[in-house]
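cache lookup: miss for this entity combination. No prior model stored, computing from scratch. Input as submitted by user K.M.:
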Amino acid sequence: MTITMNRDMNDGPPSDELRALMRATSDGDMQAFETLYGRTSGKLYGICLRLLGNEAEAQDVLQDTYVRVWQKSASFDGDKASPITWLAIVARNKAIDRLRQRVPVSEDVNAADDIADGGLSAIEVIENRQDSERLAGCLEELEERTRDLIRAAFLDGATYPELAERQGVPLGTMKSWIRRGLQRLRGCLER
Amino acid sequence: MSDDRRDMDDRNILAGEHALGILAGDELRRARDLDASDAGFRADVERWIGRFATFFDDVAAVEPPQDLWSRIAAVASPIRVSDNVVALRRKVSLWRGSALGMTGIAAALALFLLFRPPAPIPVQPAPAEPMVAVLGDAQEAKVVASWDPDRRQLVMAISGKLSGDQAHSHELWVIPSGGKPVSLGTLSGADQSHVRLADALAQLLQQGATIAITVEPRGGSPTGGPTGPVVASGQLKPA
């Protein structure tokens, strides 16, 4: 599969500039790192706030995120994803780890432990330009309810048990809604 | 649809669920096992994440507080002192509430380790096993020092408040069995800190060595040895 990616997030800084900053950061250039922080921290802070719902934790996670970026920027693969997406995923994964440590919600007791050590610690992401361009249209084809649930899972960090409770439906119902939604989404993207 | 095809299909959807972070329990375990063992599954997860990343467009940027950058820079910037004998890269990470059952997350403050030229240090075999010291003397605070020899990293986790005041610093020491205290720097109040030690210092962290915290004049002991009261100390033992 050919993977190309140049999509910028709306209103974000241009990818090329961020790519250069990421490269310099991975070489240990603190000034570039500071500029990278200045260009991207607002977006990442917004993501952390949305997931965690409070400033203190969001700031802690944001700090963790950039320390991780400082350490790991060399592993950023510009062919697989745009810098802002990679950064956003690092922030989201850190925030989700924090969220899971805070709230032990699970179908069984062991699950919380499982998640606590980093359920989504991988920071790899593959963006496909075609997928990205089509996604909005494909999301439109989903039922509004399903679309909102998928968005809530991704942006709010909600799990199946939480979503089921929030909607007042059995767990199995929630799973089948989401799974059907993902199948339709994939079907649409592959058309 | 053949069984194989259906199985592939199910796994791709599981990858999507894992990318969403929506799974719990046995399903999460299964997804994580596959993620660790199956490159095809992992690529599916990565692709799904790339798709969902479009949702980030919906999130408005919010300006973080001004002082956050200085906190990050303090942690990230490498420090080299005294003829490369001691090279320290400070890594302060967040206090993870569950580790010691602490509630509330303090603003993570930078940990400052102010290094002076160290005394000559006898060379010993490098310690190979992880060790931990519980510093139990403090009345209002519990301190756990964990030593990871592979990463040459000392993690100091402090819950509660060490006695002291603004005019003084807390200084961290290692006291080799039968030896003199060697400073590991001063602490400035972070709840948890990850300190990477140079080889010369790492070799002092042997079983039976004592980790101690003293109250010193602001900025650290002026003499190179401890001058103030010990507020916490404990011996390193195999973890």
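stored under new cache key. Confidence is low (pLDDT under 50) at residues 79-127 of chain B.
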